[in-house]
Amino acid sequence: MPEANVRHRPAVAMALSLLFAGLGQLYNRRYVKGILFIIIEASFLLTFYNFLNIGLWGLVTLGEIPMLDHSIFLLIQGLVSVIIIAFAAALHIANIIDARNDARRRQRGEPFPSLWESCRNAWDKGFPYIFVTPGLVMLLFIVVLPLLFMVSLAFTDYNLYHSPPRHLLNWVGFENFKNLVSIPIWKSTFFSVLAWTIVWTVVATTMQIALGLFLALLVNDPRIKFKRFIRTVLILPWAVPSFVTILVFAAMFNDKFGAINREVLSLFGVSVPWMTDPFWTKVALILIQTWLGFPFVFALFTGVLQSISRDWYEAADIDGATRWQKFKSITLPHVLYATAPLLIMQYAGNFNNFNIIYLFNHGGPAVRGQNAGGTDILISWVYDLTFTTNNYNMAAAISLIIGLIVSGFAIYQFRRTRSFKEEGNI
């Protein structure tokens, strides 16, 4: 067993490992491990030095010579370089920690495990991380990298008039966000679209939840017969692909030949401009979303209602509770407790519900003084800015705002939900 060496300094081992991986292990007389760390770091530097050098330069400058430097490619290479450096930094920190731990063992005179024992311990302790790492790497390059790219574009001037490779991009800081609230046309459009997005999310989602709950309560009533048949009929709208339903409703709400105006409202001498008046288009969209969304909520609530013990209602009857009191004190709390996360997802999903807005009327009709349609929500406006007017920078800025709103709302609501606070106590 080695003797204690109080003169052996862990700080020196850490400093040497910080300077270059493996030097701290050599200082600790862990020669095989130190040589392996040196080979790994040297191989990394030789392999990635040029890629990282160009990537970081491109990330800072976004190119210097038009038609030769492509700002988008340089930006992507720079972001990949940042991810690779983050991985390398994590491994380098692990190397420093390992050198410190070995130095402390040597200082106390504790024996070092053999190379085989070290590998076996690393396998036993790191088994979950080894199998998670491939998925994590894939997640970084499939999900995180596009998000970083979108966030980066929000701080550039990438639009139709600054499009690579003919022109180079420039970092503009928060100018795009300032333009959203300062330039009249952007300001008017942004706040109008944001207000409608919030109204659309709250009203449409609340109506589909309320209708689903109402129908679930009716069907769950013991006096109702043919429950299976009624449930099947009410779930049928969910079975039809939503884009087919939206296109059918778009034809039915058509001002000129739609069945609603010609066959229904004509009986009362009324003709509503469903497609040409923004107000009535919004009404139609909310009604359609209610129709599309209530079957899922109905099925969800039906399952929860059947799980409520009848003993609770019998005890409430003995106490003389009314129907409303039983609903308020037993049914509603239990339903919300069990389904709150899914209901929050309904709100978040409708906030970014692109399909119905685009398929029904392409976000129209047009509105004077705005560069968005009268029923465009933020996500459909982002689509138009990207694929119609090529305002990639503004689209990225608005997308970043959307992400912050949805994630902030979801996190706040999830943390306040009793099903998360008291998980397992139901």
Automatic annotation (TrEMBL):
Part of the ABC transporter complex MalEFGK involved in maltose/maltodextrin import. Probably responsible for the translocation of the substrate across the membrane. GO terms for molecular function: ABC-type maltose transporter activity. It is a multi-pass membrane protein. InterPro entries: MetI-like, MetI-like_sf. The lineage of its organism: Bacteria, Bacillati, Bacillota, Bacilli, Bacillales. Pfam families: BPD_transp_1. It is found in: Cell membrane. GO terms for cellular component: maltose transport complex. It comes from the Bacteria. Keywords: Cell membrane, Membrane, Sugar transport, Transmembrane, Transmembrane helix, Transport. Residues 194-413 form the ABC transmembrane type-1 domain. Belongs to the binding-protein-dependent transport system permease family. MalFG subfamily. This is Maltose/maltodextrin transport system permease protein. GO terms for biological process: maltodextrin transmembrane transport. Its main location: membrane. The keyword Ribosomal protein does not apply.
